[in-house]
Amino acid sequence: MSAPPAVDRPDRTPPDRIRLDFDGAIATITNNNPEKHNAFDDEMDLALFDALAAIKARPEIRCVIWRAEGKSFSSGRDVGALGGGQVTMSHHELMSRGHRGILQIFDLDAPIIVAMQGWSIGASFQRALLCDIRIAAEGARMMLPEVTHGVIPDTGGVGRLFQMCGHGVAADMVLTGRVLSAAEALGHGIVSRVVAPEDLDETAREMADKIAAAPAVTVKMARRVIAHLAEPAVRSSMADELVYQTFINKSDDMAEFRAARAADRPARYTGS
């Protein structure tokens, strides 16, 4: 799928790692950090939130495609960027900002189709789960590795994953960090279609065009019916995540996790 020129947003540096393109009634968000498998840092987070706000401000948009350049949709958080720059916000404040930013997905009238290839990991996988429709290229893989890093998933996706798959699959993915294949994701309803990699963008565009061609009010109301079924539990889950992740960050076990990693020794956890 050829994309029109990217919208310039000079207030972010560099702005082209998240592209926002408009083509008639279709908006396309593109993760454009392929050298790092589209790993997100703080600047990319803010650019994504800007893109969602820009789409919200354009009522003529009928459908959104969220895609990526390169081999992966997103490998999650850019761990190389952690600790970089001057931190002026608390952990709780950073989480709250992230929740506000990504919950803009629920405020859009236009549904979002996510086209996933390669890896979709951590917060990026969770953000995709909050969208309306996910399609995957053959060979795509998904995982939630947060617990292995001493924290919990905190972007709202676990609530949606639980709705799709039930307790067993959600618990397995969260607690063990297991990798889920595209075929398994299709079987569990996480994605609705699996296509050849070369057909991924074309399939997403065909779906978007079909949605955009329907009466706008009908799509809005249909999406609202589904939202009323799904969103309350997800918002409740995110409220829990905000409290529990903040607790973890201040816990004795997290201090021990960091100390053991720094000293390259086995950790001795107490559950507090």
Secondary-structure topology with pairs:
Blueprint: E1 18-23, E2 26-31, H1 42-56, E3 63-68, H2 91-102, H3 104-107, E4 112-116, E5 119-121, H4 122-130, E6 133-137, E7 141-143, H5 157-165, H6 167-176, E8 180-181, H7 182-187, E9 193-195, H8 200-213, H9 216-249, H10 252-263
Parallel strand pairs: 2-3, 3-4, 4-6, 5-7, 6-9
Antiparallel strand pairs: 1-2, 7-8
- The CATH architecture comes to Alpha-Beta Complex
Determine the N-to-C terminus distance: 51 Å
Uncertain stretches: 1-14
- Mean pLDDT across every amino acid position: 92
Morphology: globular
Q: Which range best describes the helical content: under 10%, 10-25%, 25-40%, 40-55%, 55-70% or over 70%?
A: 40-55%
Rounded to an integer, what's the Rg over CA atoms? 19 Å
Characterization of the model:
α2 packs antiparallel against α9 (216-249) and α5 packs across α6 (167-176). By secondary structure, the protein is an alpha/beta fold. The protein is globular, with a radius of gyration of 19 Å. It has one domain: 2-enoyl-CoA Hydratase, Chain A, domain 1 (Alpha-Beta Complex), CATH 3.90.226. It has ten helices and nine strands. Strands 1-2-3-4-6-9 form a six-stranded mixed β-sheet, sandwiched between helices.
